[in-house]
Amino acid sequence: MTDVVTLTGNRGLDLEEKLIFEQDKAGRTAVDLPEPERHDNRLGPARRTRPIGLPGLSEPQVVRHYVRMSRNNYAIDAGIYPLGSCTMKHNPRLNEKMARQPGLADIHPLQPQGTVQGAFALMHELAHWLAELTGMPAVALSPAAGAHGELTGLMAIRSALEARGDARRVVLVPESAHGTNPASAHMCGYEIESVAATARGRVDLAAMKARLAPDVAAVMITNPNTCGLFEDDMAEISAAVHAAGAFVYCDGANFNAIVGRVRPGDLGIDAMHLNLHKTFSTPHGGGGPGAGPVTLSKALAPFAPLPYVVREGEGFRLVEQAGETGAHPYGRMKGFHGQFGVFVRALSYMMSMGSDGLRQASADAVLNANYLRARLQGTMSLSYEGPCMHEVLFDDHFLADTGVSTLDFAKAMIDEGVHPMTMYFPLIVHGAFLIEPTETEGRASLDLLADLMLGLAKRAKAKEVAFFKDSPKLAPRRRLDETRAARNPVLRWMPPAPKAAAE
Amino acid sequence: MASLKYTDQHEWVAVDGDTATVGITDYAQGQLGDVVFVELPDEGKSFAMGDQAAVVESVKAAAEVYAPISGEIVEVNEALNGKPELVNEDAIGDGWFFKISIDDETELDSLMDEKEYREFVKGLG
Questions:
Q1: How many angstroms from the chain centroid is the CA of residue A111?
Q2: Is the dihedral of CA A145, A148, A152, A153 positive or negative?
């Protein structure tokens, strides 16, 4: 089947598509407007002196181009997408319907506040749900995504420390935390120190306590962590951190495992971002945008960034200026109020699920990951014994001496028509396979994934190296040269040389 | 060249008079896979032993390279800017990262020798 050669390069429904610039033909256009009559150009030196290089295309060409491109996407709407720590869950269509209502979709952030009371009510309600679910009193809705939320939380921590005249210098980040955590702390001006993990894949409490000192501003913990494990010493960690005068930041990217079951505020957490695009079912993975609201403890609440919505009498009002209340906001994290369209979708999800539904979803997510763990652990090497949370972590010990790597295994999964899991992360295990099925998948699709992975593991153990090194064989493109792409990236299409010379 | 010294972060150190040449070990480059980018320190910058001095990025991961001893950067391997693959091809030769002055010779004593490092790597299996 793979050796059929066609005249067009197309392979049945798998259409070979040129770059849009390669389809350029001068003079083609969708809307043919007449040249304007003589007019004075008032752009001065910004006036255009030569064409800007947009390709000439008809409307059907453009439509076909993007439709054809979209067919090469693998998406949660097409099949199982078990990318670890990404919570690629189904995006209910009701959310989209809600977000497209004209009263919500067609408003502008600079409209007079009296005309957008419904939008403020929605934001206030969303913040209320997030506060209830986390057990934390204040919510900053504006951060644009998870890492932006991390920075928001850290800036609140820095503001609180500076307010007491003690900015401090170091942020501790355990090995089991998300990779963005140290980057955010660095961006906030802190030095990063790593804290070791135990043989159980959790934070080494003794090592953490030993390092706590007056120069430590905060500890950043991902819980459940990137090994898919619950940090069971969390309350004790928080108590020790607070006793040292520091704050606890929690990366909430994995909140899907504990929604409705654990309130992070009860564990002593001071700041935590929530990825609405993960836990609360709004599109991501190319579809986006994300949203990363941050919940704050009582100690950090006065330092929440602007703006935020408050209820006033029968209506709502935006607090936009420092000094409007008794608080000490450190400024804004974003131009306007946050990713409003994402807020609508997330609240739609929460309200349609209800608090009981959210609680059920987290249980199902954990059950699904453990079902995969149970089915795979006899064949693949489970990194940490015992039950996992929403994601299960294997390493490549079962591939030792086979000549097959985690990467090869993932490429072979593509031929089986599924999106591979996260690989080579977290770094604390060798050749990681991090699998997060989410509650979206039913038994049949979990079995499909387990069956195909067990089948591939069997082939790997039979040392069918050529089969793996040659994968993927059935995808629109064969295995790409990732090394060459990284060493010599081609980031921009350039017209062929002779044409450029003629211009 | 004198025999190499090693850190538990997989840097090698070759002492030459009052400076030391530093790179990552062959084991480290093998673990990282194809190296695609190396960020080198500025010449003249001082580091304490264990400070992060450089970054090495591969198709699989980004990793820090630490100053194995305290000192000042006297030279960096500019060739890595255009040819990061030197780290894979010749980790303990042309793939060197930087040369650093030796501020405190006693720090060298705390590093591993070849045999100790080999044992250390074996223990990581």
A1: 30
A2: positive
Distance between CA atoms of residues A331 and A44, nearest Å: 36
User: Å from A409 to nearest chain B CA?
Assistant: 15
C-alpha closest to that of A419 among A84, A80, A14, A73:
A80
User: How sure is the predictor about A502, in pLDDT bands with cuts at 50, 70 and 90?
Assistant: very low
Instruction: Give the nearest chain A residue to B60 (CA atoms).
Output: A424
**Mind listing the pLDDT tens digit for each residue in A403-432?**
999 999 999 999 999 999 999 999 889 999
State the pLDDT at residue A2: 53
Class of the CATH-defined domain A357-487: alpha beta
Average pLDDT over residues B34-50: 96
Q: Cα(A260)–Cα(A231) distance, rounded to whole angstroms?
A: 17
CB of A449 closer than 8 Å to CB of A418: yes
Please report residues of A whose CB lies closer than 8 A to that of B60: 424
What residues make up the domain containing B86? 5-102
Domain boundaries, chain A: 93-350, 357-487
Instruction: Give tens-digit pLDDT for A29-50.
Output: 988 888 888 888 889 999 888 8
- The ipTM is 0.75
Q: Which residue of chain B has the CA closest to A486?
A: B36
Percent of chain B as helix, strand, coil, to the nearest 5: 25, 35, 40
Q: Where residue B98 sits, what CATH number does that domain have? A: 2.40.50.100
Q: Which two tokens stand for residue A111?
A: 């409209």
* Chain A 411-470, residues with CB within 8 Å of chain B CB atoms: 424, 427
- A90-99 pLDDT, tens digit per residue, is 999 999 999 9
Nearest one of B37, B80, B73, B42 to B55, comparing CA atoms: B37
Domain A93-350 has CATH 3.40.140.10: no
List the 86-125 stretch of B: residues with Cβ below 8 A of A: none
